[in-house]
Amino acid sequence: MHGPDDPKEGGFQPQLRPGARFARDAASRPILMFEDVYKSYKPGSPVLRGMNLVIERGEFVFFTGPSGSGKSTLLRLLYRSETVDDGRILFMGRDVARLSQDSVPYLRRNLGVVFQDFKLVSSWTVFENVAIALEVLGLPQRLITSRVGEALDRVGLARRGGDCAGVLSGGEQQRVAIARAIVGEPALILADEPTGNLDPQLAIDILGLFEDINATGTTVLFATHDRSLLEIRPRRVVVLDEGKAVDVRAGVTPGDDGFSGYDNALPV
Ligand SMILES: Nc1ncnc2c1ncn2[C@@H]1O[C@H](COP(=O)(O)OP(=O)(O)O)[C@@H](O)[C@H]1O
Ligand SMILES: [Mg+2]
Question: What are phi and psi of 225, to 5 degrees?
Fold first, then answer.
């Protein structure tokens, strides 16, 4: 038997290239579903309180809500740096919340994550910072070299591979982090305030890069509290409000009332 229940598969199938990665029937299902997810760090102050959300393959979704509303928590639950208290998180048909610890690396091969503070090794070259994502998978060096080259090309840093990451500008460093996130060709990219440390124009450039990645079929979840970014393009916007996810109409910016009580809220 081959599949998710085969222990040799580690619970998550580690295919790198698109195509063979999904079980046939999973291709027609949403890539991601949160079902009645609860999470609190301290008793009595839950962050997520019965959160439900469905994300289809290929979507670009903004997650927003004020600081402390649980955007980072939601993403951490998904890449399993935190675990749920209750509920299910179905990613490509598997319940992330109930993966064994041994299976977590396989989950992460299918996810690319980008953070506000880039999380590069500043003494390494640009190439080395991207290559590490493939080296941990034990790919042959020739393949690593060509795929890192492709990823750097996609983020507009084709000739910067030999530069030390620490000398790059903030915008360039975030591009390196994005190259690292996409080099394994994950099905889903998670970005947690990826423009939070950048000037407004650079933030728009970086948003555009995520849009380019999305245009190739990769699903993108983009967490931001920067309302100006939400206004730039009509996108699906999901607001975290009182521990639940609420869809607001694409292109409509939440009001100035602390992100709650939308006239335009749609049931999820
Ligand atoms: N590791 C943690 N331990 C305790 N509380 C936390 C931890 N991480 C986040 N929180 C709390 O959970 C709430 C949601 O935080 P977070 O998910 O970081 O929100 P956001 O990303 O929307 O700003 C906040 O009240 C925050 O203080
Ligand atoms: Mg956050």
Answer: -105, 10
